[in-house]
Amino acid sequence: LNEAIVALNTALAAAKVEVETARSEAETAKVAVKAVMADLETAVVEAEKAKTAEEVAKNALDKAKKRHAILDGVRAYPVVDAEDILKFLDSGKIVVNKQGDVTGLREQMEELQKTKPHLFTLGIGGQGSRGGFNPRVDSGVGVVDHRKLSWADAYLAGKQIKNI
């Protein structure tokens, strides 16, 4: 009987050691899982940052492509300065497709030709309308040398000169 009790106590002690070993291994695994979860969360955050950065870069590229396409379209008109024209355009009403075709610019440019003719060179669109005066532009007679043009001549010609 004593031998059986000793054998049971030995078996019980061995079982306790195995349980403690299993608990220790479980705790180690739990710590490892937490570390992996933390790494995954960090990776997700980094991936979201990268995705956001990619979206920002794509939006900036799309915006630059649209601006370039609009500037190209504006330069097709006889403008004094294409950059100045951009300030008056509603880019939300202008659509540029993937092929680079611009829609909605013509209407705005025609309206600007009527309302802000000083932004355009002389003889806009072949309509004979007059824009602002640029003495370095061919007026139909020949190239005007602004150094030879007097204020009186400019006034009599119905043109305005700011800096001669």
Structure explained in plain terms:
It is a single chain. By secondary structure, the chain is mainly alpha-helical. 59% of the residues lie in helices and 2% in strands. Strand 1 and strand 2 (102-103) form a beta hairpin. Residues 123-131, 133-144 and 158-164 have low confidence and may be disordered.
Order of helices and strands: HHEEHH
Sketch the major β-sheet: 2 strands, antiparallel
User: Regions with pLDDT < 50 over 5+ consecutive residues?
Assistant: 123-131, 133-144, 158-164
- Total number of β-strand segments? 2
Which helices and strands, and how do they pair?
Elements: H1 2-75, H2 82-86, E1 95-96, E2 102-103, H3 105-115, H4 151-156
Antiparallel strand pairs: 1-2
Summarize the structure.
59% of the residues lie in helices and 2% in strands.
Question: Characteristics of this structure?
Answer:
4 helices, rod-shaped, mainly alpha, disordered C terminus, 164 residues, two-stranded antiparallel ribbon
